[in-house]
Fold these 2 entries.
Entry 1:
Amino acid sequence: MTARDELPVQGEHQTLSRGHVGRADPRPNAKRLLQGRGVYIDDLRLPRLAHVVFVRSPHAHARIVSIDSSRARRSPGIIAVFDGPAIAQVCKPWVGVLGHLKGIRSPTQYPLAMERACWQGEPVVAIVGETRAEAEDARDLVEIQWEPLPVLVDMEAALAGLPVLHPELGDNICFERTVDTGDIDAIFAAADLVVEETFHFGRHTGVCPEGRAILADYNPAEHSLTVHHATQAPHMIHDILARHLDIPEANVRVICHDVGGAYGIKVHVYPDEMCTAAVSMLVRRPVKFQADRMESFVSDIHAREHKATVRLAATRDGRILGFDLRDLTAIGPYSVYPRTSGIEGNQVVNLTGGPYRHSHYRARMHAVFTNKNVTCQYRAVGHPIAVAITEGIVDLAAQRLSIDPVEFRRRNLIPDDAYPYAFPSGIRFEKLSHHQCLDKLLELMDYEALRADQARARERGCYRGIGLAAMIEVTNPSAAFYGVGGARISSQDGATLRLEPTGALTVLCSVTEQGQGTETVFAQIAADTVGVSMDKVRVITGDTATTPYGGGTWGSRGAGIGGEAVLQSGRALRANILDAAAAILACDRATLDVADDAVIDRLTLRSLLTLAELGRSCYYRPDTLPAGFQSELMVTRHYVPRDYAFAFTNGIQASWVEVDIDTGFVKLLGHWCVEDCGTVINPLLVDEQLRGGVVQGLGAALFEECRYDQEGQMLNAQLGDYLVPMAGEMPDIVCGHVQTPTRTSELGAKGAGEAGTAGAPAAVMNAINDALAPLAARVTVQPFTPERILAALGRV
Amino acid sequence: MKPSAFDYVRVASVEEALAHLTELGDRARLIAGGQTLMATLNMRLSAPELLVDISRIPGLSGIRLNGSTVTIGALTTHREIERSPLVAQHLPLLAQAAPQIAHAAIRNSGTIGGSVAFADPAAEWPACCVALDATIVIQGPAGGRRVRARTFFRNLYETDLTPTDILVAIEFPVTPLARRSVFLELSRRRGDYAIVGLALLARPAEGLLHEVALAYVGAGPVPMLARQAMAALEGRAPAASVMQAARAALAHDLQPGSDLYTSAATRQHLAGVLLDRAVTQLLSGGAAPHAIA
């Protein structure tokens, strides 16, 4: 094969493009979604469909003395009522631990609470009705006698074991991890400067436009289960349903229709969803569960409740020597299955100090059990914590040394020519571009002009601030993330490409779509690698009966891993097309190429045979092909990263804010994000991923927090009180890109989905603190509410 | 969630509605724009037996000028008030407040009668009614009555209305030409209920403030008329010492509560900040009644 025959392999400063890749193609599925023609789980109506609702524990911790559901059973339209032991008859329980998170522990968890409930919102009784309304009517009739138990909500109390939540475990520690590269105490004792700060991070959650939903359809005639599910990982769910419900793997099918946002919320095993599948088996009917908004707040995973104390040692000329971290996080009463609730804390340990050259690192992290809703992986897992800790303490060091924060970062960011680079803690970076990103950011935001504006504003009593946040991000995770720990979660993805008789191209990929545009990206790659136009490509995802096996969407892996599988599959299909064309045209294969839906002469670029004609010949008139030739117009290829555990990406964000020092209100004046996700396949989609991610990060910084009282009651479990970021408060978000393709794949794409969320809270925090610096005030407790800012200013 | 089952009747007259209320008392609920009630029904916080839909009763909607009084029918939507030239001309405070009520979709359906009858102290209209010294027009089984807004709001969600009353209109005295108004709110997100808000009216003359009215949103169990702060400002120039005295007086006038995000002390502080800002804005312009060209 000659170079022309292949998709151009990108060099370091080349972008990969033969047409669609690299171009801002709009999403073909956007029109359907915007016209309200999407199909979500709640749109599905199956014959004999039943609806399940759950009685959830009103207590954060209580023993179930008795359950009387006799009145509920007699309520109109009620098909069945099940409690924990009844569901446990058909659904095996689980334990949310992984082998590579050494020492992680969690108690056994059942779909419905068995003897006691451990958080407000834990499902206790399932009520199955002909309609949702009838099931809800009956729910009000279930009488449960509770014996309240001591409630554990405070992280420090949990760490101290006061009291122990699961007596069989001995203490409340789910997972702890220590990293120590040695000599920290000596280095810090001898350092010119040591700064220390404690940061608090409020619990929050990912608010999906479409709530969690599942429709389970058990067919007793063939002992098969078809599940329509709003999930990010259909094959993972497929495996879990088969094992826990004792149905042969081949008899299970998981189908994802349109999924209305997921952000990591829909990649876990939820007790109420497992229960729904079990209920379908028990009542032998299709059963639907659609979480409403209020139950979503107390049953969707939460994230980010951390208290982190960090110290940084530096020389007086502003060289970072080391970081010393102590992190405490509360994960609720159970470690979530199967990915565990240990990953976020683990990531904080892995990523703190990440962008900076330093030689010493010590970290100690505890994840403890409490009687609040469970926490698990939500968009940018651990990154927002690690970036805020790092960038907050870096800014404080720069301030103490009277060095401009930009200059301080220039001196300490890992140089762009230092790769491959490894931290003392063991993390390896293939190639990052911190300094290029910083330069681009400063240019985009016009840093000097903003500093001048800031100075002028202060003269008139207006407090504006600039905050920077450099970051590294884990993307394209290999088997090191879950597989090595024993989780049956694929880090590999596959793509099947089929040339249809009309010259159309069907792509089946194991990576899923939940609104982020993966299907568009796959269509672009397929179109380029095969040589067809975008309108000829149809992408199918989210069906375990038809797509190749794979991991789905999580960990910023869709484009980088799924995209490479599509690329490899496309190249193989193109080679097969050329074989067929050479057979049909009776010419030398090396003289042929595919472009614009036709086989062409490589030299003259003349069209020799349309793909439609080729398809017609291969499928309908194989009798006209040379004897012994068999066309293969459907191919499958898989890809999994092997060289590195993760493709680390990097980037930097800046926030420009105005703080009203009388009201404590923060106005977001501008936000910039420069990110290096390697090959940019679709700039439009990458920018929107960044912007969407930034907005979720801004929500964390200023608005979102799951507030609990001392009784473990979530106080703001509805959208009137839980404040999501809204368009009216959002600034313009300017995106920029540096492209350092990973050499671990030919596509060169790394992940882009989580960068915005990772860095935005830190940037805002630093901007607020920059604004408040002349007043000697600082904030470190997220979200930065007006009251917290006023308190820092001593105004209230 | 789905609401519990309820019966529904659409009535064509106030008398018909009153008949249902008289029969069922608080087991019946009036529904007009539904912007508060629908949410409480869906959360099953409210489970009435009967919804009496009054939204089609003729004559209960619209804005009319009658001499020196503007009468706004109970079914008039927030949006109609926001866009009314009559309101802009004679009651500029309402025109200033209206765009700050929730979001456009809510303003298109929600009604002033519903808002005032529900009496959420964090809502805009109750405070405007108190600031403007409006009169609430009520129809009950025994006939009609008029109640001053300043006595209508009794306690949290508690008003002069009984379960068998219907609020039919609100009468506002036309704001005199020389009197200006300012309506300010602090809400973390546009369209949210304000942490605290303020309706200020005053007639500035030669640097002095006259006919001052101050009504606060979200600063007590009812819309709070800040009488002592009004007295501190009345007839005075808002010099620093006067403003300080007025802010101090707010400690007596207001009874702010604490919620999830804001303590009573912070609310009290913010009420003072708003007072300063409102007075400054009023003196530098504010909105004044005007003649339409």
Entry 2:
Amino acid sequence: MEQIIILPIIIPLFFAVVMLLFWNKVHLHKYLNLISGLTSLIVSVIILSFTISYKIISLQVGGWVAPFGITVVSDLLSSVMVVITAIIGFSTALYSIGTIDNQREKYLYYPLLQFLLMGINGAFLTGDVFNLYVWFEVMLISSFVLLALGGRRGQLEGAIKYVTLNLLSSAIFLAAVGILYGIAGTLNIADLARKIPLIDQKELLSVVSILFMVAFGIKAAVFPLFFWLPASYHTPPVAVSAIFSGLLTKVGVYALIRFFTMIFTHDIGFTHTILLVSSALTMLTGVLGAAAQNDFRKILSFHIISQIGYMILGLALFSPLAIAGAIFYIIHHIIVKTNLFFVSGVVKRLKGSYLLNEVGGVYKYYPMLGLLFLIPALSLAGIPPLSGFWAKFVVIKAGLDLNQYLVVAVALIVGLLTLFSMTKIWNEVFWKDDPSGDNKNVNEMYESLTTTKKFMMYSPIVFLALITIIIGFYAEPFFTIANDAATQLLDSSLYINSVLGLK
Amino acid sequence: MFSVILSTASKYLLPLLLIFSFFLLLRGHNEPGGGFVGGLVAAAAYALYFIGNGVGEAEKLLKVEPIKLIAVGLLIALLSTIPSLFVGKDFMTGIWLKNNFPVVGKVGTPLLFDVGVYLLVLGISLKIIFSLAEEDK
């Protein structure tokens, strides 16, 4: 049974290989991509249900025992992240069919997407710090190519910033892995969780933990390391920026949560205070940056940063409720943010631009699209009863419990400013009249789409909006899972026992 | 620039280097060598041939597109993980056949995996080399 947890890594690899085998039959790729997305979704839900009923599942690849071999572990946090990845992978598969041009398909867009998903799933499922590094690389290399594919001027400019900063972060990550191995003599996460408390050199541990914090902080786009994100995320095609904005930064957040709950808890007063300060500044700078923007996708990019702040806030508060809140926040945010990017792509097709002053009047003839925008937008801002409200509520409640009134105030203000940004988009894109004076004015890019392509473009938006509503109205089970995941993280004995086979 | 010496020599060196790459591949499990090094040596053999005779000739000699080699290599490596599941062992556990074979020695899934790596490395190196060579023209 435990063999199944390797499948989220193997399925994308298998489909990517099949696509490469038939690399010149490009029209098959999109369907293979869709099948892969569907299979991954089914498998990941099975894994989640196994993990809920059997607690933590671990697999020693190749049969080599735990601290020495390659360990794959699925605890609740991992399996939830894998399910979300599969949902986003599936939605992006649909959306790509509707929007990706032939040129990109010919240059192996779909196999790259599969390799990206393989890297992300690997990062979520691995139980070993060095393997985490390897999966980060798999993910990053695919993302580099996806970002630059198409080779337009703006894209390459964004890609250079993205690649440079991410390579820097990988170098820091690798150095930190080396030092950690020098101190602890092991890189298996379960083994580390067991051995770190026994190490005397606390100062050295703090240094390593800061190195990891910087490395993951760059990937998660935390203040003051976020500058690459708004410089690059608005440049590739929408399907790509949607999957990037949903998943890639969240891998960084996942790694931060994993490391700063299970491994580096030797000096919470030091490490988690840094996280707390940086989370507040992340929220603020992100939302203020968004307020200054005039480009649909740039506004959304800056809001990724401000929302990352809430997740880090949950981690920094470091109470069971706060971490549960952070996990719930990730679940909610990935779905909402991806959906908003999808909507921005539809608007671009309709009106031919991402710039707010060049578009308008969408609501007049496409009221349903307006509704589909409002659901994720209001959820992002935290309006009840949508999913964002519960996510913010839990994190803020945890902050109030710990008497952290200042960051709570920041979080509330940022929530308001988020609403301001979303209203701005609503006013400019949907409500005001089209600048050409004719609201019926529709770009030929949209008119030339076939009905199937339109369906493929709208269906993931509806799908993700439904999930947002379900999480909002039926939050209890999702919160229970987040809460149990937080418990597993804070009490690492279950994880250690499962991986190292101790009874 | 065409050189008769290099062109003639590369025709004789190609089979020799390929045989050497197979040797490295088969030697790999317990001694230095393996699919990665073997694949690199094989790629070097074709690269030498291309320097001597031009990229068109080298592509003709290879017969398959490098990207197919990449795909087949990955597929073989992936398939080598399947037998472990049928035996009921952990994923990717090495399964060895009991008898030894002449020349090849012990046969098992790790060897299959190495063959996959060999093809993958060969394919990727040649893809890069040929792309750069065609860019040059």
